[in-house]
Amino acid sequence: MDKAKKRNRRIDKIAKNILLFTAILSALFIVLIIVIVALRGFRPFFLSYDGHKVSFFKFITGTRYFAPEYRIGYIIINTMYVVLLSVLVSAPISVLTALFVAKMAPKVLSNILTTTIEVLASIPSIIFGMFGKGYVVILVRNFADKIGIVTAGGQSTLATVIVLSMMIMPTITMLSITAIKSVPEDMEHGSLALGASETQTMFCISLNAAKPGIFAGIILGVGRALGEATAVTMVAGGRGSGPTFSLFSTTRTLTSTILTGIHEANFGSLEYDIRFSIGLVLIVVILVVNIILNAVKKRLGRYYEPS
After folding, report:
1. Which residues contact 247 (CB under 8 A, 6 or more apart)?
2. pTM value?
3. pLDDT by residue (tens digit) across 85-118?
4. What are the tens digits of pLDDT across the range 261-280?
5. Does residue 71 sit in the same domain as residue 35?
6. Distance CA 179, CA 174 (A)
7. Residue 171's CATH number
8. Cα gap 105→69, rounded to integer Å
9. Residue 101 falls within a domain, yes or no?
10. Is residue 272 situated within a structural domain?
11. Is 186 helix (H, G, I), strand (E, B) or coil?
12. Of 125, 129, 187, 188, which is least surrounded by CB within 10 A?
């Protein structure tokens, strides 16, 4: 018996060390990425490029993005504006779809819809970008022409919002389905027993109880929207100054700015290193947004703690 206990302790210790190693390895990847980006991202603020040094304050607050005066203040505003609109469009559709799949759809239809949503979530961003470039942009251009608005061939904030909404919808929907299905049936049965209809129970009990899980899906959706580059670059238009809040004007996000022209930039040049500076800003923006959203999520979860 003692030998069996010692063997089990050894196995537990080995498993613990393996899991600790994988956790440290994962953390090191994140640290390594941040360090590499930071090493090049801080260079434009401390080094001189052909006699030109970038002012951090002007860089972070400016309203024009042209070499060598790189200013990304308006780009940060445009990024947050596009992401906010995308979430406002996709979140209600995703939650209502999840409610139908989890509570109303027949089992066969529910399985088909779930599989479809999973497939949609796995489609590469370049495919969404191609769809946006080949269809959404044209759709926006034709609509703008009908109402007498001139666009840059359809590339616009509206096209970007549509494409991003399509991309983050599956993520929010899948997590919302899981959250709604995890609501204890006793709560729903109690609501029905008190005389509430099925619709009232779904919206007042199921959705309310699933709020923290749904919000977790929205957080992941916001993260994907903030970090998307390829699809956004294909439909945004690359606006050189701003900010702009017009749906039919071209726009520019932090990710599209990093991606556009990076292959043509010479290694070690200001044009090359400034993109790492933008990457640092993007990391900070994502971190701040996640902290705020997780604080809201924790506040929502507190409402459902048992007294």
Report:
1. 156, 157, 158, 161
2. 0.88
3. 999 999 999 999 999 999 888 999 999 999 999 9
4. 888 888 888 889 999 999 99
5. no
6. 9
7. 1.10.3720.10
8. 56
9. yes
10. yes
11. helix
12. 187
